[in-house]
Structures are given as C-alpha cells and as structure tokens.
Design a protein that fits this description.
The complex is a heterodimer of chains A (474) and B (112). With 474 residues, chain A is of the alpha/beta class. Chain A has three domains: 86 residues; 191 residues, no CATH class; 173 residues, Rossmann fold, CATH 3.40.50.1220. Chain A is built from 17 helices and six strands. Chain A has a six-stranded parallel beta sheet with strand order 3-2-1-4-5-6. In chain A, α14 links the parallel β2 and β3. Chain B has one domain. Helix content of chain B is 65%, strand content 0%. In chain B, α2 packs antiparallel against α4. The longest helix of chain B is centred in the last third of the chain and has 29 residues. The chains are: A alpha/beta (474), B mainly alpha (112). Chains A and B meet through α1, α2, α3, α4 and α8 of A and α1, α2, α3 and α4 of B.
C-alpha cells in the first residue's frame, strides 16, 4: 500500500515538472509546438497514474469502486471526446470563445471537487473547509462567468446588460454569498449545512454572471484571461484540500501566469483591470460626436492595387474585420503577388488586433503567412514614415490618431500604430461605421488617405485580379 | 492529518509556484499571448485528477453524480485545451524562403 501511495505521489511530481517545463517552452515561438506536446505527456501520465488510487480508496467507497471506475471512464470519454471534436472542428476565428468554454469547464470541475469536499461524509478540518469554500467560490464564478463570456463572444448575447445601482446589487450578492459560505462551514455535517452549501454555490454562480453581464464584448479577452487565472487559483486551492501537490503547483502557476497575462492584455488596450471590471466603456463616447465635417475620399480597388504594385514598401495593418470577412487567404495571395513584383511587404500587428493579443498572428499564420513577415507595434512603428503605402484592412481604433492628440477622446493614451505617417493610406472598410470603441476616426479624413469601400474578401479579389493583369500586360 | 507544518509547506509551494508562473510568462512576445492563454488553460485541466480522486472515493449517489460531472468537465478542459493550443501553435512556422528583398523603382517598376 505504501509503495502505491509513493507511485501516485511521484507521478504528480513528474507531471507537474513536465507541465511547467512545457509551459516554459510554449513561451517562445521556436519551441512552442514541442512545449504543448511535453505538457500533454505530463497530463496523460498523471491521469493514467491517478487510476492507481482505486486500490487505496476509503472503506466506505470500496463496495462502489467498480461503478465508480466505470463512471470515471465514461465521464473521461464523454467530456474528452466532445471537447476534442469541438476543438478540432471550430473555426480559428472562434478560438477565443472556445478557450472561454474550456476554461469554464475547468472552473466547474474545481467547483465539483469543492462540493464533494463540503458535503461528502469524509471529516475535514476547519482550515481545509475554508480553503474549500474559497476554491469553490472562485471556481463557480469562473464557470458561470466564462459561460457568459462565451455567449457574448459567440454572438448569442450582444448588448452588455446594465442597470442603475448594478454595482450595489453585485456587491450585495457577493457579500451574501460569502456569508452563506461561512454558514456552510459553521453548519458542516449538521442539519441545514447541506442546504447552506447548496445556496452558497448558487450564489457563487450568480456572482460570476453578475460580474460579467455589464462588460462589453471588446473587453471579453481580458475577462477570459482573468477567469483563466481564477480557474488556476481554484484548482490550486482544491489541490490543497485533496492533498495533491501537483494540482497546487499547476494551479498556482496558471494563477500567477494568468494574472500577468491579464495585466499585459489590459495594458495593451490602455486600460486597467479595475477599469475593465467596474466601469462602462462606450458611455463616454457618445459625447465625442463632433468630428471633422469633411468627406472621406474613396478609390476603386483596382487603383489602390496598382499604386501598391508600383510602390517599393507596403505595410499592411490587419484588424478583426479581415478575419470576419475570412479574407486572410486572399490577402496573402495578394501579398505574394506584390512580393513577386519586388515590393517589400510587412504586416504590422497592434497588440490587441483581433479579439485577443496574438489572435491576429494566429489568423495570419492560418493563412500561411510566415511569422518573420509579421511585426509587433514597437518594432515597426518608426518605419511608417519611410513607407509608401499603408493598407488598413478592417482595423479602426488601433490606427486612430485621436489616441495621440485628442484628450477628450475615450481612447486617448492608447498606444496606436502610426499608419497616418505613411505617404499614402488605403483603408478597406465596409462603410463609414465606427470601431468597437464607437469613436470617429479622423484618419479617414486625412488628405493622404483613401477609402476602398466593400467587403474585404471582394475587394482583395479585385486587387489580386488587377495585379495579375498588370503582370501579364507588362 | 494536516498539521501546522504541512499547512506552512503548502504556503511555500503556493509562493514558489506563483513566482514560477510569473517568470515563465514575463518575457513573452505578444504573438504568443493567445496560445499561451490557451496553453495555461490546458495546464489547469489537471483538476481532472482531483475530480477522479473524488469520484473514486464516492460512496453515495449524490457524490457519484457530482464526481461524474467534475470528471467530465475536467476531461473537457484537458482535451479541449490541448487540441486548441496544438492547433494554434502548429501554425507558427518560419517562412521557407527568405523574405523578398526590398528593391524595384516605384516609378518604372521594371520587371520582366
């Protein structure tokens, strides 16, 4: 029996080592692929080894062990199979909501462990019970909050839900939940304790919903990243309750790494985390209606393509609109034609282009764009001044010069791409609509800027045709 | 079973793990933020091990139901997190050919 216990414990040690090492390798593009494989082996190993526990279960559970093992295998197959199928089949543009969904599931699993620890027959000390309640609270909030985030990103819930006194209501719900948690611990294994625990978990789920409802879609990536850190923390706490050091280490590593990622994301959007959680963006924007009254110039896709074909340097600024139009492939086709004609083409990526930091890189990579053509904002911002053409596709706020100049603008201070410094600008856009922040963009009215109106896919197809036509006629 | 010493050791583990997580992420290029969020999402899927332990030790129908749900959700976290991360990272490949050199006069555009 003692040998068995050592085997289970050591498997956790090896697994947590592999998981952390894998995560480390994932933090560089060169080793990233091997990183997830390393972490994957660690996870497979520890899950397989956890089945050794069936030889050392408590006396009360021994008569049920066959049923329990059957249930465990069934649950692994159903949960893993569904998620594997879903993860394989989902489109790359829908990745953020998938991450939210899978993160919510992890939070739910942590909450389930907490429910069993709080209501099960095993006697547990008061310290552990408090940790259980904390982990259950955080895990439940992560579950319900992630589901709301998923619904918002998936377009199932479009408007942020806000009402007067919302913050007070949220605070009351949160405090009541805490009180219920304390009562559940106080009444542990006594009449009414089970009911208190039940109400506590319901309250915790409600907290996650209340917290996420008022937040707008543009801020969802930050929120998902925050819930990712939450789940990590909950897993770490439940690891303590279950006396599983591997869960404690993996959970806490994700908890702190996720917190740092959240801060980095929020910084990229020039917002603080408390700003994302407790203030309502967009409300300020309504006042900033008085923009420049000039009309924007518009130009045909063919003319724009010809200009780029005979330019020597072109920088492309892609935004989420490109991904929505599913035009990454067409764009890269156009870029390859330009490169064949001797044009130096680069991609400039704003830290929050797409829906998450790095999301646009993934979308471009999917279209086959090599990552050494893709430049981060800091690396490319000084080059715009020497660039013939900047082509902006489906991006708006990340190139809005008001962020630099207009103190009254809600995006004032946000770091932006200096696309306005290029000699000529083309903006591919469906119409004169505004970006996610709902702010007017004076860039479109600049003298060196011309709009190419239309769906990105259609416009790029025309551009490809034009450049091909030029190549055959010369 | 849990003594003051093991409680303190747990705090040490939490502290060191928190520093580890911070260090692992702190110098990451922003192109990897989304894959890393997904990757760390996969790593906390290890909660499935805790859920398995709870399910194996279940002795009532209620515990079995909750344990079953926990394992199912945890397994979804693990497999989904892995698949999504793997798909994203598989796309990070360097260009096979060197990037086209900047050349060509903009006016003539002379190329055969």
């Amino acid at each position: 029996m003692i040998v068995l216990a050592y085997c289970v414990a050591l498997s956790g040690l090896i697994a947590s080592g592999l998981l952390v090492y894998g995560l480390k390798r994932m933090s560089s593009p060169v080793t990233a692929v091997s990183g997830i494989v390393t972490a994957g082996w660690g996870m497979l190993f520890v899950v397989a080894a956890s089945f050794l526990q069936i030889f050392g279960v408590s006396d009360a559970a021994r008569p049920h062990i066959v049923v329990n093992v059957f249930l465990a295998i069934l649950a692994l197959v159903i949960g893993g199979g569904w998620a594997g199928w879903k993860g394989r089949s989902v489109a790359m543009t829908a990745m953020p909501q998938m991450v939210a969904l899978f993160n919510g599931m992890g939070g739910g699993a942590a909450a389930a462990v907490s429910v069993i620890a709080l209501t099960g027959p095993t006697d547990t000390g008061i310290g552990q019970l408090l940790v259980t309640v904390a982990g259950g609270l955080i895990g439940s909030m992560s579950l319900s909050g992630s589901l709301i985030a998923w619904a918002k990103l998936d377009g199932r819930m479009n408007r942020p839900l806000r009402f007067g006194g919302q913050r007070i209501v949220n605070a009351v719900v949160f405090v009541l939940t805490l009180v219920l948690g304390v009562l559940a611990v106080a009444q542990y294994h006594q009449p009414g304790g089970g009911l208190m625990a039940l109400l506590f978990f319901a309250g915790a789920l409600l907290c996650g919903i209340c917290m996420t409802l008022p937040i707008g879609g543009a801020d969802m990536p930050v929120v998902i990243s925050l819930y990712n850190a939450f789940t990590g923390l909950a897993v770490g706490l439940e690891g303590y309750v279950m006396a599983e050091p591997a869960l404690m280490i993996a959970g806490m590593v994700v908890g702190s790494a996720g917190t740092l990622l959240t801060v980095m994301m929020a910084r990229g959007m020039n917002r603080s985390i408390s700003n994302v959680l407790f203030s309502n963006f967009g409300e300020v924007a309504a006042t900033a209606a008085a923009g420049p009254q000039k009309d924007a110039k518009s130009v045909s896709p063919g003319d724009a393509a010809t200009t780029m074909r005979y330019a020597s340097t072109v920088i492309i600024v892609p935004g989420y609109g490109l991904a929505v139009a599913q035009a990454q492939g067409k764009l890269y086709e156009f870029v390859k034609l330009l490169q064949a004609a001797g044009v130096d083409v680069k991609f400039a990526i704003h830290p929050v282009a797409g829906r998450m930091p790095g999301h646009m890189n993934v979308l471009l990579a999917e279209a086959g764009v090599p990552y050494d053509m893709i430049y981060d904002m800091e690396d490319i911002n000084d080059s715009f001044g020497d660039t013939d053409v900047a082509l902006i596709i489906g991006a708006n706020d990340v190139v809005n010069p008001s962020a630099r100049t207009d103190k009254s603008s809600p995006i004032y201070g946000m770091p932006i791409l200096n696309a306005d410094k290029a000699r000529q600008l083309f903006v591919i856009k469906r119409g004169m609509g505004m970006g996610y922040s709902a702010v007017q963009n004076p860039l479109f009215f600049q003298d060196n800027c011309a709009m190419v109106f239309g769906d990105a896919q259609a416009v790029l197809s025309k551009m490809v045709e034009t450049v091909k036509g030029l190549a055959t006629s010369s | 079973m849990i003594t003051a010493m093991t409680f303190v050791i747990a705090l040490y583990i939490f502290m060191l793990a928190a520093f580890t997580g911070y260090e692992v992420i702190s110098r990451v290029p922003s192109i990897l933020h989304t894959p890393l969020m997904s990757g760390s999402n996969f790593v906390h899927g290890i909660v499935v091990v805790g859920a398995l332990g709870a399910l194996f030790n279940a002795s009532s129908v209620l515990e079995q139901v909750i344990g079953f749900l926990g394992v199912m959700l945890g397994a979804g976290n693990v497999v989904g997190g892995y698949v999504v991360t793997d798909r994203m990272l598989a796309m990070f490949k360097p260009s096979t050919k060197p990037a086209a050199p900047a050349q060509g006069m903009p006016v003539t555009g002379a190329r055969s």
